[in-house]
Q: What sequence folds into this?
């Protein structure tokens, strides 16, 4: 052993100097505080002015109570849950594929959901029988089913989940294919373009308590296995061979995490449409701010994603109130700016 | 030296004072290949615990492939590999992870801190929930002390230099405290003093702790400090035995298809590069 | 000198004939300015016409020149006769080849169509008309009457439309006491609403309905759904497919209009009259007025 380690004697006893738990704790606390702030803000932002909304809070009547507690609150809670799901899914995707550019839609989920919605809208116009079906299913259900079908198709095409590269390629192929089919269908019936646009650009406008509850339940279902498997993702980051030699079952890890990823993305897309960038930016934001292992990354990305989508929802209904921007447009602009800043900072470093 | 390692090495422990001693790793009629290529054909050898075996040979001779097969990461085309007398396939994944520790040639990029990387070495013992017991901590500390990587325990691996990162990865392997260590080029990126440290660690593990160490090493002089050699050539296995046997049989020259000049200096074998004369591409062997 | 006198007489007659012919020509030749600001010259009324807007197709037919149409866009479907005509594409993807092969004298299209330049390059006369507002209806009927040479018929048509519209508005006002009902017209489920500055909005105003959407929000704003809950319309205009799902929207189930099913949905033919500012405008207005009379509180 080389003798040139002066601090060795000091480090002989005591706990290993690795816990930066306090830093992580403060960051998570900051996330929670931001969420609370945004929730409060979303109660006073909408079609009424700030003063009016404040007045409602303290002296509510029947109508304003409906607006505050049936419309604004579930909307912001639902937006947070959807954002958390997308952030979690993005972090899982980036860990599973060991690619910092991975995001929740990389297995073709977005295109599948869009196709599902198109078919649903087409069906609604086609016949009375189809209308009954599609009314029962709703755009939400159709989007969910479409997303899941796309993922199933991707896995089928790549013949299993063992080869990551195959999965990614299949995802791209499926995305293109399903988009093409959607475009062809929309060409045949151009009246649907406007409805599709609102789905494709994302919308938190109709999030009800039912929707928010559903998202919350899915979040609960997804968080538990993710946390349990997070150490596996850590091991995977050392390389597949190393992970296997440590006793990790790669197929089990991949299948479970893919299932979580699919469920989370499908649920989010069903409720709020296709909102981009949240799944990509949330894990990056966490990594840039604190050093984390995957367990902290998954939790942090969920919290961060939730706050991001909440903020985007807030902006979308404040900026041109009482009209509204599609929330996906807001996330695209904000996400795009963030990525540009990131790139600029990176190039300055090098 | 832990009781487990003792028991593994067949040395007497408190529980069992006298034991039989099966080979730690043995290959029988092993045929390996990847894709359409067959790299090694029908090879048989034994590796005992308490020894350090170095696998040497030119590029493409199958060093990595052999190591991966021994670790259970690649399925052989034919033949069997036995770990402590039992075929590899019969060990459960978890048991095997506790018996074999593997160091890959190139590691992935990871955002973890050095201590977290070393902590992953305890995965086979502590499992999915990373509740760190005192035993885990002690193992990690021992491993980091042995590799001199304790000072940067809290730093992200990506901020370390190549050599520092390699030592962290080696600490990860040592933290497993497995009776068999399989290392693919453990001295990559390291400057001579640290290469020397690694060699000492490996010798210590083998002789002092009774661990079975198998490593693929490029550097001939370093490889010759091991106890035994497995020499691979482009044609397959040239021979396996002690270093002396290898030198007497001039296996290295056969493997590298050119005269490899080994000299002995103060009890240590060194490779002397010939700077004048025909190049290695000439097929003549003087 | 009798031959020279005869010659002079023949010369005068010839000049007289020439003059009268020229006058006749001048009487038919007209220069009309289109909505792109171009002055288009018509030596005589066009005989072969292609229209690329459904509202223009309807106007041309209402002016009695249906037989002069050789092709329309794919959305034109009134009157029934035009459905048999060849279709030259939609609003954005008009088929140049088909148009050229039909050798039209005139192609009438909207201001924003990209094909205009292409047609000019190929030497085909085109005429651009804007069809967005109520005021465009009267203007377009006049202009088309001028072009087609049926100006009297155009004036009659405009008078009859104006009279009908006035009658409907008066009847609606007379039928109710006080102010008109508050309405919300949903164009799409996003939700996109029809504002007062849109054509639909103008029709609603003419029957005396009060649009909950204000003019500053634009013609078709994408609203915050909360807005409808806040401004409590008495009647909701929505498509038949979307009507059942209105109660599921958060907060909307508390609206009186939703609870009491005060919805107005129109079949496709009527819906067309509401988005094509053309000669059937009175039909659309009548449908709106009838529904309001039936459904408003």
A:
């Amino acid at each position: 052993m080389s003798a040139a380690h002066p601090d060795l004697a000091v480090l002989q006893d005591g706990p290993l100097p690795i816990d930066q738990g306090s830093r992580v704790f403060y960051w998570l606390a900051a996330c929670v505080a931001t969420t609370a702030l945004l929730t409060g803000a979303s109660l006073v932002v909408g079609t009424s002015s700030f003063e009016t909304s404040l007045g409602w809070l303290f002296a509510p009547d029947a109508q304003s109570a409906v607006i505050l507690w049936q419309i604004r609150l579930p909307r912001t809670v639902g937006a947070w849950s959807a954002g958390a799901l997308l952030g979690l899914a993005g972090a899982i995707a980036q860990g599973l594929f060991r690619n910092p550019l991975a995001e929740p839609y990389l297995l073709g989920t977005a295109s599948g959901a869009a196709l599902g919605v198109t078919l649903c809208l087409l069906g609604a116009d086609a016949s009375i029988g189809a209308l009954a079906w599609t009314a029962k299913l709703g755009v939400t259900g159709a989007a969910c089913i479409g997303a899941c079908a796309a993922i199933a198709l991707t896995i089928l095409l790549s013949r299993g989940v063992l080869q990551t590269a195959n999965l990614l390629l299949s995802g791209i192929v499926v995305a293109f294919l399903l988009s093409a089919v959607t475009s062809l269908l929309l060409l045949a019936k151009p009246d649907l373009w406007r409805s599709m646009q609102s789905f494709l650009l994302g919308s938190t406008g109709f999030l009800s308590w039912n929707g928010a509850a559903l998202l919350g339940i899915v979040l609960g279902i997804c968080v538990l296995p993710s946390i349990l498997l997070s150490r596996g993702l850590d091991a995977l980051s050392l390389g597949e061979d190393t992970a296997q030699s440590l006793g990790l079952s790669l197929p089990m890890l991949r299948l479970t995490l893919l299932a979580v990823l699919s469920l989370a993305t499908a649920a989010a897309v069903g409720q709020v449409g296709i909102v981009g960038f949240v799944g990509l930016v949330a894990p990056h934001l966490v990594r840039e701010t604190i050093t984390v292992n995957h367990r902290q990354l998954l939790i942090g990305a969920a919290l961060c994603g939730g706050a991001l989508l909440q903020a985007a929802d807030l902006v979308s209904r404040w900026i041109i109130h009482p009209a509204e921007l599609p929330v996906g447009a807001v996330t695209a602009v904000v996400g795009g700016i963030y990525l540009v800043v990131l790139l600029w900072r990176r190039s300055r470093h090098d | 030296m832990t009781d487990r390692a003792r028991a593994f090495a067949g040395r007497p422990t408190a529980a069992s004072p006298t034991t039989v001693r099966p080979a730690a790793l043995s290959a029988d009629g092993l045929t390996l290949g990847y894709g359409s290529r067959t790299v090694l054909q029908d090879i048989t050898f034994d590796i005992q615990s308490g020894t350090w075996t170095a696998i040497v040979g030119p590029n493409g001779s199958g060093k990595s492939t052999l190591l991966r097969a021994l670790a259970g990461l690649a399925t052989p085309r034919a033949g069997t590999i036995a770990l402590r007398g039992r075929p590899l396939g019969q060990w459960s994944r978890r048991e095997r992870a506790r018996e074999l520790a593997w160091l890959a040639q190139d590691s992935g990029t990871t955002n973890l801190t050095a201590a977290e990387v070393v902590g992953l070495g305890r995965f086979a013992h502590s499992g999915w929930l990373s509740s760190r017991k005192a035993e885990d901590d002690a193992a990690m500390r021992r491993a980091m002390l042995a590799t001199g990587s304790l000072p940067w325990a809290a730093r992200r691996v990506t901020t370390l230099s190549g050599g520092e990162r390699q030592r962290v990865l080696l600490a990860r392997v040592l933290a497993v405290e497995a009776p068999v260590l399989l290392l693919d080029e453990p001295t990559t990126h390291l400057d001579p003093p640290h290469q020397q440290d690694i060699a000492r660690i490996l010798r210590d593990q083998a002789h002092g702790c009774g661990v079975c160490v198998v490593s693929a090493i490029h550097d001939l002089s370093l490889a010759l400090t091991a106890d035994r050699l497995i020499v691979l050539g482009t044609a397959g296995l040239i021979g396996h035995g002690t270093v002396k046997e290898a030198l007497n049989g001039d296996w290295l020259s056969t493997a590298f298809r050119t005269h490899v000049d080994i000299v002995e200096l103060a009890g240590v074998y060194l490779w002397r590069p010939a700077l004048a004369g025909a190049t290695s591409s000439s097929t003549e062997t003087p | 000198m009798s031959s020279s006198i005869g010659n002079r007489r023949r010369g005068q007659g010839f000049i007289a004939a020439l003059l009268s012919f020229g006058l006749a020509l001048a009487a038919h030749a007209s220069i009309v300015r289109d909505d792109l600001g171009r002055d288009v010259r018509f030596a005589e009324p066009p005989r072969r016409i292609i229209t690329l807007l459904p509202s223009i197709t309807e106007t041309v037919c209402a002016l009695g020149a249906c037989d002069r149409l050789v092709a329309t866009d794919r959305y034109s479907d009134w009157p029934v006769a035009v459905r048999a005509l060849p279709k030259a594409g939609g609003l954005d993807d008009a088929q140049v080849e088909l148009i050229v092969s039909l050798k039209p004298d005139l192609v009438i299209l909207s201001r924003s169509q990209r094909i205009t330049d292409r047609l000019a390059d190929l030497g085909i006369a085109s005429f651009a008309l804007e069809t967005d507002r109520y005021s465009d209806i009267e203007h377009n009927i006049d202009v088309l009457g001028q072009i087609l040479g049926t100006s009297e018929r155009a004036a009659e048509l405009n008078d009859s439309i104006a009279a009908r519209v006035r009658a409907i508005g008066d009847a609606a006002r007379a039928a109710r006491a006080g102010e008109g009902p508050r309405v919300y017209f949903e164009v799409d489920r996003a939700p996109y609403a029809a504002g007062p500055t849109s054509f639909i909005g103008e029709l609603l105003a003419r029957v005396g309905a009060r649009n909950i959407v204000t003019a500053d929000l634009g013609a078709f704003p994408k609203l915050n759904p909360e807005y409808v809950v806040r401004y409590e319309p008495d009647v909701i205009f929505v498509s038949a497919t979307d009507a059942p799902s209105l109660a599921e929207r958060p907060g909307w189930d508390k609206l009186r209009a939703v609870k009491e099913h005060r919805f107005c949905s129109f079949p496709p033919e009527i819906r067309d009259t509401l988005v094509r500012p053309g000669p059937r405008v009175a039909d659309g207005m009548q449908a709106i007025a009838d529904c309001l009379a039936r459904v408003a509180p």
